[in-house]
Prior knowledge:
There is one protein chain. The chain has a single domain (18-238), classed as Alpha-Beta Complex (Spore Coat Polysaccharide Biosynthesis Protein SpsA, Chain A), CATH 3.90.550.10. β4, α4 and β5 form a beta-alpha-beta unit. The protein is built from nine helices and eleven strands. By secondary structure, the protein is an alpha/beta fold. α5 crosses α7 (179-192). The longest helix is centred in the last third of the chain and has 14 residues, at 179-192. It has helices at 4-9, 11-14, 46-55, 69-73, 94-102, 124-135, 179-192, 199-205, 225-238; strands at 18-23, 40-41, 44-45, 60-67, 85-89, 111-114, 139-145, 150-153, 159-163, 169-178, 210-214. Residues 23-31, 36-37, 66, 90-94, 97, 116-118, 221, 223 line the site of cytidine-5'-triphosphate.
Amino acid sequence: MIELGESKRDPYLANLKVGVVVPAAGSGQRMEGKPKPFLQLDGQPVLRHVLNLFLSYSWVKDVVVALPEKQFQEQPFWLKQDPKVQGVLGGATRRDSVWNAIQVLSEDLDLVIVHDGARPLTSQKTILDCVKNASEGPGAVAGIRVVDTLKTTDKANQVLETLDRKGVWRAQTPQVFTYDLLFDAYHKAIQNDWIASDDSIIVKKAGGQVRMVESSGSNFKITVPTDLDLAEAILTRYRF
Ligand code: CTP
Ligand code: MG
């Protein structure tokens, strides 16, 4: 797989037009009701780390961030610093936020990367692996294989059975698709009110193919308060 330096010279990537959609409009119910993309991490907001993951690529042409009402009305200065970035008002669910963002993307894009605004530790390798995979056909979803033994339980936590974890993954973002596939799939999802916690559910349901791309555990989504400490520890240790 390609490394960052190599990719900057990669003539194929250089010819791609890629858009980025960042759903960042959640209310952070599991984070004491604080919107996670606007919490401070190592001296800057989580969302600023996320934008920095993508903005240095010349093939990233357009970045649309779905924002909560408050941040949409009073957009922070750092969101307006790069002309590639624009904010839209998010929706009631992640699905609605992503759809609001997709609709304002420019239409001449080859690929669209959807990346959570609460996932700041994604490696450049994972981004590039997903983009390369998606440019070869099926949609590409970053994820990790499940390593723990999986149990199902009843309401009293009594174990019912142990599941076979072979072929079971935890899906993360980036999730990368061709523009047409993503737009058409989301259009159908909104028309038919499909419930979906990620983009690949929608693309699969609309008939598209999706392939998992092995990422790493450090690409976790900041979800609960201790995740911020963990992210800070990883960032200050590795400075990537
Ligand atoms: N998101 C969004 N619009 C929503 C809900 C979520 O743009 N209506 C975004 C979040 O801001 C986050 C990503 O989707 O970047 C993943 O969602 P999640 O981790 O569930 O964030 P929240 O919904 O904010 O958190 P919680 O579920 O704990 O309330
Ligand atoms: Mg949520």
